[in-house]
Structure formats: C-alpha cells, structure tokens
Amino acid sequence: MNSFAMGRYIPYHSFLHKMDPRAKIFCLIVLMVAVFMPFVSWQMVAVMAGIAFLLITGLLLASHMSILQLLSSLKSLWLMVIFLLIIYILTPRNTSSLGVAFTLWNYKVYWDSFAEAGRILVRLMLMIELSLILTATTKPLDLTFALEWYLTPLKWIGFPSHVVAMTITLALRFIPTILEDVNRIMKAQSSRGVDFEHGKLGAKFRAVISLIVPLFVSSFIRSDDLANAMECRGYDPKAKRTRYRQLHFSWLDFLWTVLASGFAALFIYVSVTHFDGFVTWLGLGTNLV
Amino acid sequence: MKIIEVEKLSYSYDGKNPALRDISFSVEEGSYVALIGHNGSGKSTLAKVLAGLNGGFFGHVKLFGQELTAESLPSLRSRMGLVFQNPDNQFVGASVRDDIAFGLENRQVPSGQMEEIINQYVKEVGMEAFLDSAPENLSGGQKQRVAIAGVLAMKPDLVVFDEATSMLDPVGKKDILDLTFKLRQENPKLTVLSITHDVEEASHADEVLVLNEGRLMLHGTPKEVFSHEHELNDIRLSCPFFIALVNELKRQGVSVPDSINNERELEEFLCR
Amino acid sequence: MPINFSKVFYVYNPKSPFQYEALKNVNLTIKEGGFVALVGKTGSGKSTLISHLNALLHPTSGEVVIDDFVNSAEKKKRSRDIKALRQKVGLVFQFPEYQLFEETVEKDVAFGPKNFGVTNEEALKQAHEALGVVGLDPTFYQRSPFELSGGEKRKVAIAGILAIHPKILIVDEPTAGLDPRAAEETMTLFRKIHEEGTTIILVTHDMNLVLHYAEEVIVMENGQVVLQCHPNELFGKDLTQYSLEVPDVYRFARDLRGFGLKIDTANLHSIPDLAIAIKGAYHHE
To answer: Cα A14 to the chain's mean position, in Å?
Structure first.
C-alpha cells in the first residue's frame, strides 16, 4: 500500500493522538465551521485565513505528518483551483473591490477573481487538513467508537446504532482479509490467461467479472460463517453488551474543546459583527475603487 | 453424566434430501470423541445441529441433560464452545485481545474483569506475545489458538471442534492437537468432540463415531473402529498409519497380537 | 522444457518499512518431464518461487528461464509474450475452488482455453475433455459451480487448468482439505498426467505424498534452495534441520533401527514396502 496514502493512521504520541476521539470530532467540526465563516472584506479574509492556516497546519505537523505527505495530499487540488480561477475570471462582474490585475485583449481581469479562487483554495486546504488531522491521529476503531457514541441518542427512536457500529467494526477488520482475497483471485485468473491491464473493453469487462464474482461469493461465505460463529459465541444484537474498550474523557479533552470552541466563537463574532478592526490597526487600509 | 445425548436424529436442509438419518449416540462427560466421515457425510451438519444452528430437526438432542430447543438454546450455548474450520471467518476482533473480549462482551462480563480474563486465557494458548496483533498478521494455527482462547474464556463444559485443523499446515495442526491434549489434562471434566476426516487425529480419541451418507455406521474405540479397514476404505476413509501397517504385516504373514495398541508397542513387539 | 533459476533474488515491498527478502540467490534447474516436489516450511519462499514460473512475479535481480521465456529482473531482457508462457505453465493454487465464477461448470472450464485464443466451440470441447479427465461426467456440464460440493468444485478448478494443456503443471497443496479418498484420487490424476508427458511440480507440506509420488524433491529454507535430491535420499537425512515432517514409514523404520532391527530404507515408498522390509529383516534374524 502506498505509504503516502491519504487518510492513513500515523502511529505517534502527540497530544492529538492521546485526545479522546469524541472530543476530537467535536473540535474538528467546530473548527470547520470557523473556516467557512464569511468576512466583510478581503483583507479580513486574508487575516483570518492566515490565522486559521497557521493554527491548523501547526496542529497537523504536531500529529507527526511530514510536510511531504501533506503536500502530496493537496496535489489533487491545484487542477480544480485553476479550473475555478478560469471560471471566476470569465464571470462578468459589476463591482470590484480590489481593482484590475491586468488586461488581456481588451478584457479586464480583476484581482477579485484571484481572491475568490484563493479563498476557495484556502478553505479546501483547511478542510482537508482538518480531516487529515482526524484520520492521522485516530485509529479507525476509535473513530467507530466515537461515531457509535454520537449515534447513541438515535437508539431511542429505534435506530440500531450499535449494530451499525458492529457492522463498521467488522468491515474494518475484514478489509485486509478481503484485499488478500482480491490478490489471490487475481493471481489465479491471471494464471488462466486473464489480462487485467491491457485489452479491449469487452475483454476488460470479462476480466473484472472473473474477479468480482468469486470475490462476492467468498465474501458471502465469510459473512455466513461469521454470523454462525458470532451466534455461537452468544452475540445478540438486541441484547445488552458490556464493552471491553472504554473511552475516557480527561481534563485535557475538556481544555481543547473549550479552546477550539473559543477559536470558532472568535471567528463567528468577527464575521457576524462585520469586524474590520484589524485592518486599520495593522494599517492595511486600501483604496477601494 | 451424559453431556450429549442424540436419539434418532434426522435432518434435511431442503425438506427432501436427508442429510442426517436416524442417528443415535451419547457422549460421556470428560471423554474425547472423534466424529469422522468423508466430506459430505453429514458431520458438519451434525455439528451445526448440536450448536443450535440447524433447527427443525426430527428426533431428540439433549445437551447437559437438557432438551435442545429454541428456548433452552441460549443457556445451553453458554456451556458449549465451538471452533470452526476457517480461522479467518470466526475472528471477529481487530486484534487478539478484542477477539477474546468479544465473547466476554456478549456475556456481559463487567469491563473491569475482562483484562485479567483475557490475559489468563491468552497465556493458556500460548499467544501472549500477540495480544495486539491483527488477524492478517497471524498464521492459521495462531488464529485457531485465539479462537480456542475465546472459547475457553467462557469456561465451557463441552468444546466442539468442527474440522478445526483441516485448513492448517502440519505445524498448525500439531499446535492445535497438542493444545487439545494439554487442555484435557488440565481439565479432566472437559468433554471434547472433534469432527474431522483426519484419521490420525481420530486415533487419539477415546471413542470414534463413523458417519457415512448421514448415517452412523460404526462406533467404538479407535482400535475397534479402525479394524474395519475395508468398510472404511469403501466409505472413502483410510486407517491411521499404525493400524494400516498392522493389517499389511498380517497380510505379509507376520502375525501381530491383538494386545498391541499403538506404534510404540508395535515397535517393541517387532524388536523383541 | 527445462526450467532454470539463475542468481534469483526477490524482495517484497522494496524500500519500505515492510521490505522482505523472500528469495535469496536461488540457483536451480528443473529437468523436463519430471515429477518434482517443492517443500519447506511456511515462509521458506515456495509460493514466491513458483510465482516466477508463470511471470506473476519478476525477479528483483537475476533471471528465470522457462523453456524459451526469459523472466528477467531487467525489463529489456524480459520476454514479451507472457500469455504464451501462461499457456505452457499451468498453476493450480491452494483451494482453487475460490476462483470459480462462471454460470455453468463447462463455461468455467472453457474460460481458460478461450483466454488463450481458442474458439468457443473448441474451448467447450477441451473443457469436456478436461472434465472427463478429472472424473466429472456430462451431468455436471450445465450445473452451476456454486451448487457443487467442495471436492467437486476442486475438480472443476483443476479441470480449468488442465483444459489449457500446459506442459508444466504446478500444484500448490492440491490435497488440502480433502478427505483421504479424494486426496488419493487427485494425486493419481497428477501421476497419470505426468506419465503422459507433463512436468509436475508439487508444492506440499505432506511428506507422505512426496515419498509416494515424487521422483525428485527440492527443499527450501529461508528463501534459499538447500537441497535437491531423490526423496529416499532426503528422508535418509536428519530432517529436523529443515523443519520438515518425516513420512510415517520412515519414522517407523528409523525407530525400529533404533531398537536394533535392521530395516533397509533405500526403496521405501509405502506401507506395503515397509511391511515387506520388516518381514525381510525378520528372516535375517
């Protein structure tokens, strides 16, 4: 597997790794809200984005993700941003707050287009970084526990959240096993003359069928066997079960939650009150057209 | 006490073709019984009936003196542990720890007690070095050992091995057989039913039941059962090495007294 | 079609924390037409080795030559026609029944030949022939492979490889999970195919099979070939160094020797052989 694969858990001992996954999810959601707040002027956007960027990238690096991994996971964004930039440039605009950048064959290209594309880029980057922080510092199983915890209230309206959690846990456990199955089946069919890489559409389709059908069959057999084994070991989805792995909130989780909420509250305040203070304070006044 | 009592058991999957016909046998507490038969003889079907996975059978099945019904099943299941054939398809947890814990969670064992129980039984099966290993990093034999730990943690009175070694390499097979032997020594009251087509394995049991086409064809001590070499060959089974050798020696004109019970005794007899 | 391994190394996941050297300097020649057993404990490199024989894997360094196909570490020297190689070298994996996927038995067995360019009609004919060889009669042709028993599925899977008429047949643990009679039938089938001229390479843990069927045995340990000789020669040695099981007849004969009874083990292949040898030793007393 690609060691730079996006979303992979990176074992380490950072404070983020030790944080309770439920608190982590809450903090990340709250920070995402902050990232999406609209601000009154481009300068404010730049300032707030800068703050958010420093904070979030800092957190990401604290989770032991290397800069190289970070950059490679953002690679896919560039194409989309350039595409968006072109659309923004080509969209006719009536007002501009930032002025003309340059003129191309009598067509005025405004800085606003770049700013709009830039804002989307920054938001996307921050969203990806926030997601990476979650997946890099949290084991998939812990994520499932946290998810189950959040879904617990739904039990009261009949939603089987613990069954969903068990399903996800089992799926995670079987991913490597099924990958091995895929590998094995591909080798067996290749030995029978199937070419998985080259060939016309028809041949490729048959090749895929020769992989998917046995995979489905063996997966069904696995689930049948598994269900029997689970039943024999006393599993009853409707019955109460105790839990081996326990999640514990610590005062640190409380602290981070408060800090993250405070940070988000600040952003919301700045956004809602159309705050412009930083600009004059930092002397970044501009000549608005 | 009779741990298993089966009386005139018949079962069919589709209502037309009988998979089990009129089977009757019993298993005493503390004994090690091997149930052998060719693939398709009905042995796995029988295991599943005993496990409560195949309901709707005709006849009577009593476990621990109690009739097996839908109502009694949960309590009977708590006294019985099953180890199945495919090491992967019964491994539920993301790690060895979690898998052993699964059974404990189902029985609502208090979370505080689980760690100790897990540590105790993982040592019983010799897997303490692998507590945090994921199943994809374990061999078949290791996974089966974990399955056994999970079963033992429930302190069962009966353990049923449903072809538990047939997908293992020789090292794995030996591991499981040695472990079974050790468990029986440590716990003489534990009853073991081993379903297999490996006749060498069966030759170590106290009693052997032979299934053919859904019927119980033979039963008795290994020596008694395996003396029917021709009948066994006819139903696609073979004899353990030792017995096949004795039969061949007799054919060659070397007489071997009936009192000889195993390889060692045969060697001593031949070299006296 | 001789097979030749020359200074072959194979490394899984090179340059990663999961790097693992599975083959270390393998030099090996397998003659045409033999019945060779490849043994060694799990992890010794057997599966990696056989995967080189039909180019599922390319060596990390060194070269494997199968007939006229060069499976070289260097891309330039590598032969192109992998399909032709896979028609000549048939590989039956462990538990091959997992590869069945077609709607009917005959279609699944015909799948192989069709991939190698044979017409539909001809492929079905070869499928029927192969099914006959493994002992499945025409009543099986139209049935779905998924409704068959385990043993029948295995026969279909083996037929699927036989239908492409390979010159070299590699079988990995062909008797795993089979009951004694089915195991014997399967091995008898391979012996028959061998007698008709196919080279057979049997990968197995079962030393009794090696003793009973193989003409030559190759022992692997830690990614290297440590021994290549006749089975009787192998079993005359101390096998604990290779972590191999001793065949029952040899174990017994050795025990008898330990007690002072002189048993000639040079030609021991089966229980009748052992019984005769014991009788012979008696007459010398």
So the answer is: 19
Residue keyed to tokens 């290779």? C242
Closest CA to C5 of C87, C76, C43, C60: C60
- Contact B215/B231 with Cβ under 8 angstroms? no
Say what the alpha-carbon torsion angle B139, B145, B146, B147 is, to the nearest 10 degrees. Answer: 110
Separation of alpha carbons C114 and C125, rounded Å: 11
Q: Beta strands of chain A (E only): which ranges?
A: 100-104, 107-110
* Distance of alpha carbon B137 from alpha carbon B146, whole angstroms: 13
Terminal alpha carbon distance of chain A:
53
B191 close to A (CB below 8 A)? no
DSSP for C201-233, please give it. Answer: EEE-S-HHHHHHH-SEEEEEETTEEEEEE-HHH
DSSP β-bridge partners for residue B227: none
Judge whether residue A281 has pLDDT over 70. no
Residue in chain C lying closest to B237 (CA) = C180
Both tokens of residue A263? 């940070």
Q: Per the structure block, which two tokens stand in for B52? A: 């409560």
How close B103 gets to chain A, by Cα (Å)? Answer: 6
- Bridge-based pairing of strands C216-221 and C199-203 is unpaired
| pTM recorded for the entire structure | 0.87
CA distance C164 to A245: 53
The two structure tokens encoding residue C22? 């599975």
Instruction: Tally Cβ neighbours within 10 Å of residue B27.
Output: 23
What percentage of chain A's residues is helix, strand, coil (to nearest 5)?
70, 5, 30
**Higher pLDDT pick, C268 / B7:** B7
CA-to-CA distance for A185 and A212, rounded, in angstroms?
Answer: 9
Residue A5: band (very low, low, confident or very high) from pLDDT cuts 50, 70, 90: low
Interface of C with B in 125-164 (CB under 8 A): 149-151
Are A267 and A34 spatial neighbours (Cβ–Cβ below 8 Å)? yes
Contact criterion met (CB < 8 Å) for C101 and A214: yes
The Cα B251–Cα B253 span in angstroms is 5
Subunits with 3+ C-beta pairs closer than 8 A to A: B, C
* CA A180 and chain centroid, separation: 27
Q: How far is C269 from chain A (nearest CA, A)?
A: 33
Scanning every residue of chain A, which has its alpha carbon at the shortest distance from the alpha carbon of B160?
Answer: A232
Q: What percent of chain C has pLDDT over 70?
A: 99
Q: How confident is the model at residue A58 (pLDDT cuts 50, 70, 90)?
A: confident
Is A209 near chain C, with CB under 8 Å? Answer: yes
pLDDT digits (tens, 9 = 90+) for B142-188: 999 999 999 999 999 999 999 999 999 888 999 999 999 999 999 99
Query: What average pLDDT score do residues B238-244 get?
Result: 88
Give A214's contacts (C-beta < 8 A, 6+ positions apart): A185, C98, C99, C100, C101
The CA distance from A112 to B40, in Å, is 76
Residue C111's SS3 state is helix
pLDDT at C15: 83
Closest among C89, C104, C174, C194 to C143, alpha carbons compared: C104
